[in-house]
Amino acid sequence: MRQEAGRVDTRLNSRSPHNLQSSLENPKNALEKSLLMEVVCPIDSQFSQQICLLLEPPSSLQVQEHFDGLITSKQCCGIQVKPSNDYGKGVYADLDFEEGDLVLKDQMLFGVQHSSNKIDCLVCSFCFRFIGSIELQIGRKLYLQGLGNPKDCFDLASSDGSDKEDQLEFQQCSSTSSRNKFQLPTECVESLMHEKLALPRSMKFPLPSAIICPGGCKEVYYCSKSCAQADWDLCHSLLCTGEDSKSLSKKALSKFIEHANETNDIFLLAAKAVCCTILKYRKLKAAYSKEKEKNPISNGFGNHSFALLLKAWKPLSMGYKRRWWDCVALPDDVDTSDETAFRMQIRQLAFESLELLKAAIFDEECSPLFSLEVYGHIIGMFELNNLDLVVASPVEDYFLYIDDLPEAEKKEVDEITRPFLNALGEDYSVCCQGTAFFPIQSCMNHSCCPSAKAFKRDEDRDGQATIIACRPIRKGEEVTISYIDEDLQLEERQALLADYGFRCKCPRCTQEEAKIQ
Ligand SMILES: C[S@@+](CC[C@H](N)C(=O)[O-])C[C@H]1O[C@@H](n2cnc3c(N)ncnc32)[C@H](O)[C@@H]1O
Question: Could you tell me where the DSSP H helices lie in 318-453?
Fold first, then answer.
């Protein structure tokens, strides 16, 4: 689903699988070469009962209780999640909203920045706020573009920004290609990145210092110690490739990450969901064991391990799910006659990813999470519910500010900043882009004449989803958004919505269909 940002272009639908097509064989060729075999995951048959229980849709009462609790804890007053009339659950207004009102600010459950976007923007890996400084953002981007290698070629050495001179170290990158038309001397780019060179008026756009990962992986950075800790506790302790990683094998983990970067970063998101459930399970188990020690005769659970796993899984159980290979949209360049082969390839790709993840973080007590069935449903949940993650760039703000300065002042400043703007070229305004799952927003149903839209305002500077009323919404009315570009013609809209598994019957579609008949 799309999320729009105030000053930047409409984002594309995150359903188009990142790098997926290039990583797959032509389905017809694959079928002819008999590359496609029905992969078998032994965990699927070994834990079939537990898997059914994990994937069982929650009852209306469980949905109501879960979301009432979530809405209260997040203080998202004004809305309710409840069973919708026709299709599962939906979001309803609990008070009147006027056009332009904020309906919901939703904190993501899991999010990732696209790997291809990491060269352009250095953001906090937990809240997705831009970090460092304007100089670091520009210098790092030009440096990495100069190297032509977007893959984490830099290393922030200082954790608190206290020793700025030593803040950046560089790992060797081999490629020398460049996207820049206007090259700047290497020393100049390095000075900027090391924050030895200050750009005029950049202090007007202060950013939080970059904090390194507590596990020492040098691959993720944060805007604060609290974000670093929260991410560590949520999932990163198992996904960190640094010295303090809690994974089984850092080498296996690196292989999993490499595979995801080369094929589809939705696997990184699925890994976060698996890790989060495992870590929650371990916490619940520790609390349960402590309680048992204090009170040995208490009854507790029968099969307590699985009951604890179900509890840890609860936030994920609430998301609408189908198997990824059943719901992923058929790419335009795949013929419908090749659909079966294409879906088999997607299943095979998910299995490859799962095997790599298993080698890195398998936990026997959480075995059902490593079944292809559960892994496929987690990815399918992201495929059907995710919103584009968009955060506007402060570098764009900076250059717009310079452009708006009074003429004389602008001339003076522009002399210094122009070479950097020219070197960045059209990419100067690239925003942070990724994909994220938002627990409350993901309950919103679609309409081609929606009452609200996902729209980032100027003040929205992190990865939270912002839902704004696009017309008055009365108390009790359903809050709907459009999953697609609603300016498209009826049949194009219906074709895109078919990928979500339904034909839209909103008043607009009904009226337009009636006109045709
Ligand atoms: C993002 S979820 C929305 C919440 C969902 N109703 C639930 O129960 O969790 C998207 C799914 O909801 C259903 N859905 C959303 N809007 C719909 C509509 N206008 N007509 C029919 N089904 C819809 C489809 O199954 C779709 O794949």
Answer: 324-327, 339-361, 372-385, 394-403, 407-424
Tens digits of per-residue pLDDT, 156-168?
433 344 443 333 3
For tokens 């159980």, what's the residue? 317
Q: Give the domain ranges of the chain.
A: 4-59+232-388, 73-110+436-516
- Phi and psi at residue 135, in whole multiples of 5°? -60, -45
Please name which of 259, 278, 275, 261 lies closest in space to residue 352, comparing C-alpha atoms: 259
- Residue 318: CB within 6 Å of ligand 1? no
| Superfamily, domain 73-110+436-516 | SET domain (2.170.270.10)
CA of 502 to the centre of ligand 1 (A): 8
Spatial contact of 94 and 79, defined as CB atoms under 8 Å apart: yes
Assess: ipTM above 0.85: yes
User: Residue 327 CA: which ligand 1 atom is closest?
Assistant: 27
The model's pTM: 0.90
Cα separation of 84 and 447, whole Å? Answer: 13
Rounded to the nearest 5 percent, the helix, strand and coil shares of the chain are 45, 10, 40
The angle that helices 394-403 and 134-147 make with each other, rounded to 10 degrees, is: 110
Q: How far is the CA of 504 from the centre of ligand 1 (A)?
A: 10
How far from each other are the two terminal CA atoms of the chain, in whole angstroms? 30
